[in-house]
Design a protein that fits this description.
274 residues, alpha/beta, 10 helices, binds 2'-monophosphoadenosine-5'-diphosphate
Length: 274
């Protein structure tokens, strides 16, 4: 049976084995997918060993996405620009090929699942770390009217805006420079939610019918989503992004697009029960 896995540290909490097992069942594909804990100093050995044993592909999660980018012998254009790889597979010549499906996952969740047309929209992205770098290219490919990257450390936002300036109307801003501006979509890509913190945002940033999106998810809405709801915005967490990035990896490996809706519903129900 074809074997796949996700490498991370920690990795026991990963939902990827469940997601891919369900995709396989729904798409009539026969495969095995497991979570593998990689030692922080021996990620590349673990990957080589897995492919050496006949593994067909793997996902890569925290903290190894940048190292996977280094390790890949070839990369998709989107992964090259993202500076991070979350999906590895072997190319026709048996070399390690890296891709990044996070940005496409976010865009599909917004467009297919939430039904939002991003063309012509004003988008604000909060944060300028690895998570944000991974999604800027696919967001700009949807042709928004503008995309502003705001970050606590403004220089990092400016670096990202410069890196992606050839892909669309992207600019950088400090949080306090957002006062008086409004956006149709505000995406939280900071890790502030993890600490239960809220980036210091002016209350005016949501236009009428705006959507607030947090790339994190949990049983409870994040601090950011609770705040956004109080401002009258629609809210959505990152569970759909998780399922959609997995679906894109599955497609790359198997050549088959798996159905995502049943998986998303199952995970949501489980989160609410927990
Ligand atoms: P990741 O790979 O998950 O993006 P990262 O590269 O460490 O992680 O980036 C974390 C992001 O969250 C950064 O944009 C960080 O802002 P700084 O660049 O100024 O450090 C942002 N962040 C983390 N905690 C935050 C907080 N409490 N308020 C606002 N931004 C925060």
């Amino acid at each position: 049976m074809d074997r796949y896995c996700v490498f991370g540290n920690p990795v026991a909490h990963s939902k990827s084995p469940r997601i891919h097992a369900t995709f396989a069942r729904l798409a009539g594909q026969s495969l095995r997918y497991e979570a593998r804990l990689a030692d922080k100093d021996h990620f590349s050995d673990a990957v080589r060993q897995f492919f050496g044993e006949g593994g067909r592909g793997c996902n890569v999660t925290v903290p190894f996405k940048e190292e996977a980018w280094q390790l890949a012998e070839s990369k998709s254009v989107r992964a090259e620009k993202a500076g991070a790889v979350n999906t590895l597979l072997l190319d026709g010549a048996g070399r390690l090929h890296g891709d990044n499906t996070d940005g496409v996952g976010l865009v599909r969740d917004l467009t297919s699942n939430a039904g939002i047309n991003l063309a012509g929209k004003r988008i604000l992205v909060l944060g300028a770390g690895g998570a944000v770098r991974g999604v800027l290219g696919p967001l700009l490919a949807e042709r928004p009217a503008e995309l502003v990257v705001a970050n606590r450390t403004v220089a990092k936002a400016a670096q990202l805006a410069a890196l992606f300036s050839d892909e669309g109307p992207v600019s950088a801003a400090a949080f306090d420079a957002l006062a008086g501006r409004s956006f149709d979509l505000v995406i939280n890509g900071t890790s502030a939610s993890l600490q239960g913190e809220l980036p210091p945002l002016p209350t005016s940033i949501f236009s009428a019918n705006a959507l607030a999106y947090d790339m994190m998810y949990g049983a409870e809405p994040t601090v950011f989503l609770r705040w956004a709801q109080q401002q009258g915005a629609q809210v959505r967490d990152g569970l759909g992004m998780l399922v959609e990035q997995a679906a894109e990896a599955f497609r790359l490996w198997r050549g088959v697009q798996p159905p995502t809706q049943p998986v998303l519903e199952e995970l949501r129900a489980e989160l609410l029960r927990a």
